[in-house]
Design a protein that fits this description.
The chain is of the alpha/beta class. The chain contains 47 helices and 30 strands.
């Protein structure tokens, strides 16, 4: 017999009133619940007079088995035959006792009293989500089409409000969301009407009941938070210097203003008055932290500044959430939104009625129907009585509910209806800190309300707290407590993590020397160059993404635990042992990374068991199979057809697909495929004919066979199932294909048939990002690491737990993107879109609900983290990735000399919390026992005392590089060499030939096929010598090449000539000093835009420059540097006159491409044939007349004056000689006539130079 704590014994023994047992993780609540049931049976309460409600079928099975075992034990211990006989009777009742899920209980109620509601007793359960979703989609399509056919203008506007320019799916999503929320509540149609009623408003926001009942209390609480922050600043003010008393003046005025609002909260305080008062707030324009005169009070000023920022943030949020528009605008938008919402609710009601009618036609009921019908039966009135409710209240001696925190409002109503009022007989067990099923309409507020009410002696109910955790070591409990006492507070998490909520270590048998520290493993993506030596650069060339790095880090840590080996304490054997793979669980927030995790861990030799693997419909093998099914249904679909052809089933490459398309460019790909299959003497023809034969066979096969049989026939004919089994992650992929077969089989058990319907259904599921089948990987009883979601781990425990991807972003898409946001407590939030003006107007209710919904979502994420951490029995490891550790420490630094346990508000704002890491790291950095490894930057936060042992280790890329393993096989030492046989020699020769193969065009792979003129101009400086000095392709070339390599810059060793002077991106050109390159570019643009027929003087050039500046083609500061006089001087030269001579033809800024022999640029001894090199450039211009072709190029280079001018000019001419030679060759090829003159004009010295 286990020894129970006083609190556990109270939960077993107390009766006569409602009891709420708040059972923390590992507190033995199931054991207590079973013991209570057994004690009641031993005291004469028959099992069939107890209603025991569990959350899942698995929990029901476990509960029955525990009760059976306990009854068997009681029979063995009974001392007289009468007692044994009574216990055996209870064993006989066990199978029929009301120990079940609430759904199963509802079914029994309906089966017993169906006639009261005129129900057909021959209904079936609509348990398959596939059929349910299809019926919903079909029903909605019918309702929608009826409105479209009737040309319902209100419906058209509704579709525009919630849809987009491509589809009305947004409206369907809104209707389905309203349905799911309404159906989880008693009287769903009334709830829908109340949603609309909340938007009713006339002349004042204050007259709106919703504002008074819902918004105003929360608003006043938020104002109180601002006031508290203001009071804190005033209290801290004496610790710093307040020059001229300005700070005291500001904050005193604000405090008085806030006090006047708070003191008047019990009076009628209208919205307009609140807005007016809050707009009078004033803040200091500037607060100096660091200055010489404040040097002695720097820590105090930093702390004050931090709290001042909190104060400003709270005030800013208050204004943006409640007072973001004038009252008149808010009233108008709310009135318009009310009209839209009324139409939406009316359409939703139509859908509900049509959906119910369709299910009635199919004689099918789903789980929601069971609950709604049970509620109707319990509320059924006959002759002024409620006979069904009275029957169950009389039948049940007690109603016991497990996981009470996860029930929805309708389930709560049912439980209240079957339990007694006075004295209460409802026994509820749960832990609100583990309420993580909000997406299923679970409402933890029911638990929280009783948790607070039963604390008072004025209420007859009793609250019992089971705080002892008999599962985990002390450090797990201390770590959990240390974290959540800093972040879990009623202002965000709806619950205070106070003394009552904290975990108490109940497991006292763990050895003291057991290593149980909580580890946070973080991969830092910041550049690792400073952390590595030059020798590491080659290794670090292939960088890891965050996703890859997390998984590698996870695998390496698991291997480290196994290699040490880490010691596990076996509590049954009462001794330590080496860790095994099955001791480890990896908990993930979503299944998104599961396939990658499985692949990487298996690559590292770590076995994995996955219960629900990954995004099923998104995997490659399933996508290929779905594409195949699509073309079997209709082959004239290009994308699915090409998908199959390019897959291992079709086994075609890009060139094959190009050949197919080339045979018929006018029609779809299927017609092209048929034509390509008739090409004579083509090796591709046979493969295409085989594929078409297979496709025709499968199209014929599907006529006489089921979809499941068709899927299996594809596997058999193509071998695709075997193929994917040999790929990385093959076991997972093969299981996915098996799951597709099972999905197809279960689909055809529904009321829907046909391949087209099946494909359409899957497309809808993909569009909604839903997975209806999940394949397990591995065997549950093998020695393997277990991989599962945090939700899937609830109720389980493991010696070692990795919480993976703690930087995964919370899913808040419904708050940010959904056009209607639903909240069980506050209703529906919608904006109004003026379809005429195409303007979206927010509403006060919508803003409020989105804020509350976001806060509730963060609270649930916090509870999800609590569940994850408390799964660990002995060791907890949290794995994530960060960008920069130093910045993170600075951001999360907490300076608080008073050591307030709760984190500052600015670190707990729902709008700032995006992931688990942001929740936990600020708290962990305050641990006095914290050890930080892998980085020199330590925490600068004020430290809190704790016995929890935390370690944060920061990793970079070099830490994850796997060193090559060199081993010596002792079996080969001293081994005798065995002579090779003829076959072995032939095989060895073949292998040597393949491994020693040298590509005959090796130098071609090391040279570019394209060069710009600016990169290659140096090669053509000598007009008489076309051949270049050859460039080496690699450092490991010939001796001549190695010698040449020392004479060239490093960039010339890549097989391409490059220009070191790259143009800077625009974000780097915002500098005060204008460069010569910018001036040159602007001058060329000006010369390009000059109108040659005009008189070119300073006035015209000034106008042109201003026009280009206004068009933002030239920056003003660059335009000011253009030498307009030099341009005027250019047009006074003979070349300038030639440009303006109307008898000449002038072309400016001429682009060209030129093919040159690559051997002229690069040394390519292995190329016997000429290989072409494409050269591209733009020449400034040329002039053509009957006698001459004149090529010209302007240069803005600085030449200078004086004695050095001649030398500088000669240097520049030599520099640009090659460029003009290239232009000359290109121009000659273009015009098919020789260039007679080549000119360079240097604007700096107004000098024309002929080459």
């Amino acid at each position: 017999m286990p020894k129970f704590t006083p609190q556990q014994q109270a939960a077993i023994d107390h009766h006569g009133h409602d009891i709420l047992v708040s059972a923390s993780a590992g507190s033995g609540k199931t054991t207590v619940l079973v013991k209570r049931i057994i004690e009641e049976v031993l005291h004469g309460v028959p099992l069939d007079q107890l209603l025991v409600v569990t959350f899942t079928d698995a929990a029901t099975t476990e509960m029955r088995e525990r009760i059976r075992q306990a009854l068997n034990d009681a029979v063995e211990q009974a001392t007289n035959s009468a007692e044994k006989q009574a216990l055996r009777q209870q064993l006989n009742l066990l199978n029929t006792a009301q120990i079940s899920t609430l759904h199963s209980f509802c079914l029994k109620v309906i089966q017993k009293f169906y006639y009261l509601l005129d129900l057909d007793p021959n209904f079936r359960l609509l348990a398959d989500d596939t059929e349910k979703e299809l019926i919903k989609e079909q029903t909605w399509a019918n309702v929608r089409d009826q409105h479209y056919d009737a040309e319902d203008e209100a419906f058209f506007q509704l579709a525009e409000q919630f849809g987009n320019d491509r589809s009305d799916q947004g409206l369907a999503d809104a209707v389905f969301s309203l349905y799911e929320f309404a159906i989880a509540r008693p009287q769903p149609l009334v709830w829908l009407d109340n949603v609309v009623q909340s938007y009713q408003i006339e002349n004042s926001i204050s007259d709106n009941p919703y504002f008074q009942d819902k918004i105003k209390p929360v608003l006043l609480n938020n104002i109180q938070e601002v006031a508290t922050a203001c009071d804190y600043l005033l209290a801290k003010l004496p610790t710093i210097t307040d020059d001229k008393g300005e700070l005291a003046e500001f904050f005193t005025a604000d405090q008085q203003l806030l006090s006047s609002i708070i003191l008047a909260k019990d009076q009628v305080l209208d919205y307009h008055t609140l807005a007016t008062k809050l707009q009078q707030f004033k803040f200091p324009s500037r607060f100096t932290v660091k200055a010489k005169k404040y040097a002695e009070e720097l820590p105090e000023r930093e702390a004050f500044k931090q709290q001042l920022d909190v104060f400003k943030e709270l005030y800013k949020n208050l204004i943006t959430q409640y007072f973001f528009a004038p009252e008149a605008t808010l009233i108008k938008s709310q009135q318009a939104a009310s009209t839209v919402l009324q139409t939406l609710v009316d359409v939703t009601k139509e859908f509900i009625q049509a959906y119910q009618a369709e299910k009635q036609h199919l004689k099918a009921l789903d789980f929601n129907d069971w609950e709604q019908l049970t509620w109707e039966l319990l509320m059924f009135v006959k002759d002024g009585q409620q006979p069904v409710q009275a029957y169950y209240r009389q039948l049940f001696h007690e109603v016991l509910v497990d996981e009470y925190q996860d029930i929805n409002p309708l389930q709560e109503a049912i439980l209240q209806a079957v339990s007694q009022d006075e004295p209460g007989n409802l026994f509820m067990v749960g832990d609100v800190k583990q309420s993580i099923y909000g997406f299923r309409q679970a409402d933890p507020s029911k638990f929280l309300q009783k948790y607070q009410d039963f604390k008072s002696e004025a209420v007859t109910g009793e609250r019992i707290i089971l705080a002892e955790n008999f599962r985990s070591t002390a450090n797990i409990n201390q770590s959990t407590n240390f974290l959540f006492q800093q972040v879990m507070h009623h202002d965000l998490a709806e619950l205070d993590y106070d003394q009552d909520a904290q975990l108490v270590t109940g497991a006292q048998d763990y050895p003291e020397d057991l290593e149980t520290s909580t580890e946070v493993l973080l991969y830092e993506t910041k550049s690792t160059a400073e952390k590595t030596t030059p020798d590491d650069n080659a290794i670090l060339n292939s960088t890891f993404s965050k996703d890859e790095a997390r998984i590698k880090l996870l695998g390496q840590k698991i291997k480290q635990l196994l290699d040490e080996p880490y010691q596990i304490y076996d509590r049954k054997l009462e001794q330590k042992r080496n860790i095994t793979y099955r001791d480890i669980a990896i908990l993930v927030p979503t299944r998104h990374d599961n396939l990658a995790i499985v692949s990487e861990l298996q690559r590292q030799g770590i076995p994995v068991f996955v219960k629900d693997a990954n995004d099923y419909f998104q995997t490659t093998e399933i996508q290929v199979m779905l594409a195949f099914l699509e073309i079997i249904n209709n082959p004239e679909q290009d994308i699915p057809l090409v998908t199959v052809l390019r897959s291992p089933i079709g086994n075609l490459n890009e060139n094959d697909l190009a050949v197919i398309r080339a045979t018929d460019k006018q029609h779809n790909f299927y017609h092209a495929l048929q034509k390509a299959a008739q090409l004579p003497d083509s090796p591709l023809t046979t493969r295409l004919q085989d594929f078409l034969q297979l496709l025709n066979h499968l199209r014929d096969y599907t006529v006489q066979h089921s979809i499941a049989q068709l899927v299996w026939e594809i596997y058999q004919q193509t071998g695709y199932l075997d193929y994917v089994g040999g790929m990385p992650g093959g076991l997972q992929r093969a299981m996915n294909l098996h799951a597709l077969y099972q999905r197809a089989f279960s689909y055809e058990q529904t009321s829907f048939k046909g391949l087209y319907q099946f494909i359409n259904f899957i497309k809808q599921m993909q569009a909604h990002e839903k997975d209806l089948a999940q394949a397990s990987v591995g065997e549950s009883n093998e020695d393997a690491v277990q991989l599962m979601t945090i939700h899937g781990s609830k109720g389980l425990e493991f010696p070692v737990v990795f919480v993976f991807n703690i930087d995964h972003q919370f899913n808040q898409s419904d708050v940010r993107r959904n056009k209607v946001v639903l909240d069980g407590k506050y209703g529906a939030g919608v904006k109004y879109i003026d379809l005429q003006k195409r303007v979206k107007y927010p509403t006060l209710i919508d803003n409020f609900i989105r804020q509350q919904h976001q806060q509730a979502a963060i609270a649930e994420e916090m509870r999800l983290l609590y569940v994850a951490m408390t799964r660990a029995k002995q060791k907890l490891l949290l794995v994530g990735a960060i960008d920069n550790w130093d910045k993170l420490v600075q951001t999360y630094q907490v300076n608080d000399e008073h050591l307030t346990t709760l984190l500052p508000t600015n670190l707990r704002l729902p709008s700032k919390l995006q992931n688990f890491l942001q929740l936990m790291l600020p708290a962990i950095l305050r641990a006095k026992t914290l050890q930080i490894r892998g980085t020199a930057t330590q925490s600068a936060s004020s430290l809190l005392p704790t016995t929890a042992q935390f370690t944060v280790e920061v990793f970079n890329q070099s830490d994850l590089i796997e060193a090559p393993v060199t081993t010596t096989n002792p079996e080969t030492v001293g081994a005798v060499e065995v002579p090779l046989t003829k076959l072995d020699q032939k095989l060895q020769t073949t292998i040597a030939t393949l491994l020693n193969f040298q590509y005959p065009h090796q130098t071609a792979t090391q040279t570019t096929a394209y060069q710009s003129v600016s990169e290659i101009k140096q090669a053509f400086t000598d007009p008489d010598q076309f051949q270049l000095s050859f460039l080496p392709l690699t450092l490991a070339g010939t001796a001549d090449q190695q010698q040449a390599a020392h004479l060239l810059p490093p960039t010339d060793l890549s097989g391409r000539l490059v220009n070191d002077d790259f143009p800077k991106p625009s974000f780097m050109t915002q500098q005060q000093k204008v460069t010569g390159s910018q001036i040159g570019t602007a001058t060329h643009l000006l010369l390009q835009r000059v109108e040659l027929q005009r008189l070119i003087d300073l006035n015209y050039l000034s106008e042109l420059r201003q026009r280009l500046t206004d068009q933002q083609l030239i920056l003003p500061e660059v335009a000011a540097k253009i030498d307009l006089q030099a341009i005027v001087n250019f047009f006074k030269t003979p070349l300038g006159h030639a440009l303006q001579d109307q008898q000449n033809r002038v072309q400016r800024e001429v682009a060209f491409s030129l093919l040159l022999p690559a051997q002229a640029i690069f040394k390519m001894p292995d190329e016997t044939e000429i290989q072409n090199l494409l050269v591209h450039g733009i020449m400034d211009g040329y002039v053509i007349n009957d006698d001459d072709v004149i090529l010209f190029d302007y240069k803005t280079d600085y030449v200078g004056h004086g004695a050095q001018q001649a030398d500088r000019l000669a240097e520049l001419v030599a520099k640009y000689q090659g460029q003009l030679n290239l232009y000359e060759q290109a121009l000659s090829n273009m015009l098919q006539r020789p260039v007679t003159h080549k000119y360079l004009y240097f604007l700096d010295i107004d000098q024309l130079v002929e080459l």
